[in-house]
Amino acid sequence: MNLDIPAEDHPIFKSIPKWSKISLDRYNYIEYILITTNIWRKMILETVEKVAINNEIAIYQLIKKYIFRMDLFEKQARENYWSFTRNVIMEKDKLINELHGDRLTLIGKMAASMAHEIRNPLTSIQGFLKLIKQIVSSETNNKIASCLKIIEDDFETIHMQITGFLSFSRNREHDESYDNISLIQIIDSVLSMLNPRLIQEDVICVKKYKKDKIIRVQRKGIQQVISNLMNNAADALFDVSHKKVITMSMKEDDDNVYLHISNNGPKISDEIVDLLFTPFVTNKTSGTGLGLTICKQILQKNDGDILFDTNEIETTFILSFKKALE
């Protein structure tokens, strides 16, 4: 309260950074600074009441000086407190990002190793399938040809899963080329493989789009994403008793195309809703918790993204893609 000492030179003013750090370490939040200011204001009024005798100008000038000092103290305290808080938040974010990056790197190495082990025998199987198709005439052996078609479709599904696992690998040699592709063609190729399951489980697929959209993406990677989301939607509908519906629709703006994949199954659990794209997080008893993480990474590699909305009526995943340049 000694006005003879300039505010910036006062020992209390100089101790604000230390005081702010101690407050943060003790979890004394910003409201404590305001409480301190209110206490100080009360002291100012009491001091003015004692020193001012029938002199309104002197009272006004004194109050003005005290309040200016009080505001200066509060401003400095808030700025220091926020500076320390921001640094703590940045350090924690940095640590979280580093841990997440290390985790994904480890997953990538595991996934790449596993994918290579699976891919080698699959390549051999694919070669023998082609050889069998050349030997067997589909005209005289329709049943065999039909079985081979099912095997080929399942083979392609496994191949897309491997592509997804390899998306965790940082080895660029596994990257597929980017091409201008019809989004409807990608959807149709996925549905051709998924339709037997949808029919068997009485799931209706409603397509609410007519006009095609051309996007520049990696075909197999995006097929993997859509296939994974469609299978997840079918999984969500497996135990429901009402009519099972998966709805697909498209929207667009100047730069992006949006594919909405909705199902009228139960709401995603609140326990995992904020961690849905985190590796190993799943509410499926037999799930790995990697599917949505892989989907997000594939989309980000294709300059896109994935969001979702869930409620008691339906759950919708929204895929965004950059439009192909004309």
Automatic annotation (TrEMBL):
Under Gene Ontology molecular function, one entry of this record is: ATP binding
Enzyme Commission code? 2.7.13.3
Q: Does the keyword Glycoprotein apply?
A: no
- Known InterPro entries for this protein? HATPase_C_sf (IPR036890), HATPase_dom (IPR003594), His_kinase_dom (IPR005467), HisK_dim/P_dom (IPR003661), HisK_dim/P_sf (IPR036097), Sensor_HK_Regulatory (IPR050736), Sig_transdc_His_kin-like_C (IPR004358)
Q: Which domain of life is it from?
A: Bacteria
Start and end of every Histidine kinase domain?
113-325
Q: Does the keyword Nucleotide-binding apply?
A: yes
Which reaction(s) are listed as its catalytic activity? ATP + protein L-histidine = ADP + protein N-phospho-L-histidine
- Which key words tag this protein in UniProt? ATP-binding, Kinase, Nucleotide-binding, Phosphoprotein, Transferase, Two-component regulatory system
Q: Which PANTHER family has this protein been placed in?
A: SENSOR HISTIDINE KINASE RCSC, TWO-COMPONENT HISTIDINE KINASE
Protein name, per record = histidine kinase
UniProt organism field: Cohnella lupini
